[in-house]
Amino acid sequence: MKDAVSRRTSGKMEFQHIFRLTAGRRGAGRKAAAFGTALFGALALAGCSGADPAREEYRLAGIEQLEAGDYEAAIQSFEEAIAHSDGRVGDFEVDVLKYRAEAEYKAEDYGAASHTYDVLLEVEGKDADLYYLRCMALAAEGQTARAQEDFDAASAMAEGKKEASPVMDDALVALGTAYQKSGDPERAKAAFDKALALGTATPELYGSLGLALLEGGQPAEAAEYFSQGMALAQPGSEEYGSLLRNRAAALESGGEFSQALELLKQYTASYGSDPEVEREIRFLETR
Fold first, then answer.
1. Which one of 32, 166, 184, 283 is least enclosed by Cβ atoms within 10 Å?
2. Measuring CA to CA, which residue among 139, 28, 45 is closest to residue 85?
3. How far apart are CA 274 and CA 198, in angstroms?
């Protein structure tokens, strides 16, 4: 962006600019306040000569915590890494912010993640991967319109490139899931179909596509996608059981009662039963 570029000095941007951006959008949340505190600390350090060596220790600790699934601790470590920086946004700070956004997303703090990507896009300028990643965060928040805008912007940037973005398929799945949850199965199916066309065939994707079709009133097609997902899933896994049960629901919805009953009996033999499954079995036995 022109405004961001105009504020750069030797490839770096003053933290003061980033702090203003952050304070204006994230002041309400607990993590927002923490991030603002970290950046305020960075501003206090701006007068120091050079960065505190501890910043790399905090960065490495955050990466280890992120990989271990301790996302809250990772976020705190990345805040400390920023607070111990030299008051300017250079390669180190950008790297930390990217890790921080990933930790926020995995911690399901999607609002914080989307705003961290706002900051990164302001610093880095137009970047397809960042738009796809922000799309995922916005989609998880249920902001389908903004998520679609980011996806379209990223796709436009990626046109003509030999290699597709490594996160484009994830963005499609997130977008499709958001449309599915918002009650728009047609757009959900379009997003999932596009992901499948890119070669992203996973049990989870087939399951999501099956749900979109089932909710859209296409039970036969839904049952087929659940079946394809089962073919990729590990038999006996929770994922396989979910697909099996959903396929039974799709067959029942399409009037294939005997097949649905057979699948539910398979389900109970492997995964046990519950009142809902027993109720469905009793119903199907009367068909």
1. 166
2. 45
3. 38
pTM score of the predicted model:
0.69
d(CA 99, CA 67): 11
* Superfamily of structural domain 201-287: Tetratricopeptide repeat domain (1.25.40.10)
pLDDT in tens, 173-191: 899 989 988 989 889 989 9
Torsion of CA 129, 134, 135, 140, to 10 degrees: 140
Band of residue 51 on the pLDDT scale cut at 50, 70, 90: low
The residues facing 14 across adjacent strands are 88
> Which of 36, 174, 9, 191 shows the shortest CA–CA distance to 105?
174
Return the domain boundaries, the chain.
1-115, 201-287
Assess contact for 45 and 38: CB atoms under 8 A: no
